[in-house]
Amino acid sequence: MAEWIGIGRRARRCYGFDEVALVPGMVTVNPNEVDISCSINGVKIGVPIFAAAMDGVVDVKFAVAMGQMGGIAVLNLDGIQTRYDNPADVLIKIANASAEEATKLVQSVYLKPVKEKLIAKRIKEIKSKKVPAVVSCIPQNAKRFAEIAQDAGCDIFVVQSTVATVRHVATEYKVLDILKFCQEIKIPVIIGNCVTYEVALELMEAGASGLLVGIGPGAACTTRGVLGIGVPQITSTVDTAAARDYFYKKKGKYVPIITDGGMRIGGEICKAFAAGADVVMVGSAFAKAKEAPGKGYHWGMATSHANLPRGTRIRVGTTGTLKEILFGPAQVDDGSQNLVGALRTSMGSLGASNIKAMHDVEIIMAPSIQTEGKMFQVGQRVGMGK
After folding, report:
1. Active site includes 122?
2. Where are the domains of the chain?
3. 104 Cβ partners below 8 Å, 6+ apart?
4. Which conformational region is residue 317 in: left (phi greater than 0), alpha (psi within -120 to 50 degrees), or beta?
5. I need a labelling partner for 356 at 20 to 30 A (CA). Which of 90, 130, 245, 249 fits?
6. Quick check: pTM over 0.90?
7. Residue 374's pLDDT is what?
């Protein structure tokens, strides 16, 4: 598996979306007849695509719109929506800031403390529209925020950090006991982020109802550049999915894998499912929606770190409605719209009648898959050449 990279040191070769391709099998299926639904600890999800818990992507209105279309949008409880009574005013300031001002402005905006009353208020606003309420926060806030969220009617609680482990060591603050937390909370708990078999297995054994997989692949994230940490998403999904399958055989509990980040277009989403994902979490694609609160801008959750920001504000533009991005008709030629249609068509072409069948399709190493025969697209900056 590993190759020598110097005296006494080996490194494993890992793969990202651009380095692999999916191979059709012996059977094809009508795309309209494939089943893309899934469930997380009994919570049924019609569209297995989550909108990421980022302030430029999800607010209450976006969460409601996504829920009405069968998907899930995760609201960030550590963000602008719970720090400000009128978050729209703050979001406009961020959108209007110059590139030089953006990071400093974002850092200052997140210095204001979270108002616990707004946590319950935002969740109730989502639930009032009869759609699932799914929220996220960092481990340090999880115990208190989960109690409030649960009482307000939250359906799924997400505990999210740059790198999640069961065995976190710290003396400066109280460490979240993940095992105890999962036992005490009465709603499903998704934990992230992780990228390895061993950590995924320990988080499942601690009681996680789902796992977020991915460190640093997001469009607005700079963790890989700032910290040098990360595993390409195909390999990390395959490895954590192997842990899920082992855990299911051992315990009889199926813990969904949610590939989080790095997917811009339909083809990459399809590859994530083939690698073993049950759900995918997407940020930048949804930041382009007219309904997104960022007004065409997108920034990572760690961008606001006071001393070491690990994200940046990027301009993604506004390209279409949420409906067009999810279901079409696509108004652009780069695969960033009609994501559900792309998934259905890919599954049909591969002969996968449901998501679990998608896990068994053949994957090949194909470093030329993005460039073979695409000279004119690259030269004219259209389609796959963008």
Report:
1. no
2. 17-368+378-385
3. none
4. left
5. 130
6. yes
7. 56
Q: Are 156 and 40 in contact (CB under 8 A)?
A: yes
Q: Are strands 297-298 and 314-315 parallel, antiparallel or unpaired?
A: antiparallel
Going by pLDDT thresholds of 50, 70 and 90, the confidence category of residue 379 is: low
Q: What is the pLDDT of residue 138?
A: 94
pLDDT at 268: 97
* Percent over 90 (pLDDT), the chain: 77
Q: How confident is the model at residue 107 (pLDDT cuts 50, 70, 90)?
A: confident
Position 104, amino acid: K
What is 17-368+378-385's CATH topology? Answer: TIM Barrel (3.20.20)
CA–CA gap between residue 177 and residue 174 (Å, rounded): 9
Instruction: Give the tens place of pLDDT for each residue, 32-64.
Output: 999 999 999 888 899 999 999 999 999 999 999
User: For this structure, is 14 an active site residue?
Assistant: no
How far apart CA 348 and CA 164 sit, in angstroms, is 35
Beta bridge partners of 212: 258
Residues 141-144: contacts with CB under 8 Å, at least 24 apart? 141/77, 141/78, 141/114, 142/176, 142/181, 143/176, 143/181, 144/116
CB-based burial label for 370 (10 Å; 0-12, 13-18, 19+): middle
pLDDT band at 214 (very low <50, low <70, confident <90, very high): very high
In this structure, are residues 312 and 298 in contact, taking their beta carbons and an 8 Å threshold?
Answer: no
Report whether pLDDT(205) > 70.
yes
Residue with tokens 């499942």: 204
Catalytic residue among 137, 154, 182, 221: 221
106: tokens are: 């974002």
In the block, which residue shows the tokens 């481990």? 139
